[in-house]
Specification:
3-stranded antiparallel beta sheet; two-stranded antiparallel ribbon; single chain; alpha+beta; 7 strands; elongated; 1 helix
């Protein structure tokens, strides 16, 4: 089965991202497509999430260069 080219968006961002998708129920999650993004689309998606502004942050492991990963848009849950 070949993947077909398509454009995708997520409800909390304005961007449209080019990629590929396989048709069929095994290629969806809760009825939504599971796209494979091109490298350029992936990079844009990360920028749109706000994950491209690295910050030097003092941590318990010393000063690290860290990247915020969509802090406000995504529903993160800490796993213990």
């Amino acid at each position: 089965m070949k993947a077909r080219k398509a454009k995708f968006k997520v409800d909390f961002l304005d961007g449209v991202y080019e990629g590929y998708v396989f048709d069929g129920p095994a290629e969806t999650w809760n009825g939504h497509p599971c796209p494979y993004l091109t490298y350029q689309a992936r990079e844009q998606f990360i920028r749109d999430l706000g994950a491209y502004s690295p910050e030097h942050i003092e941590t318990e492991d010393g000063k690290l260069l860290l990247f915020p990963a969509g802090r406000q848009q995504l529903k993160w849950e800490e796993v213990k």
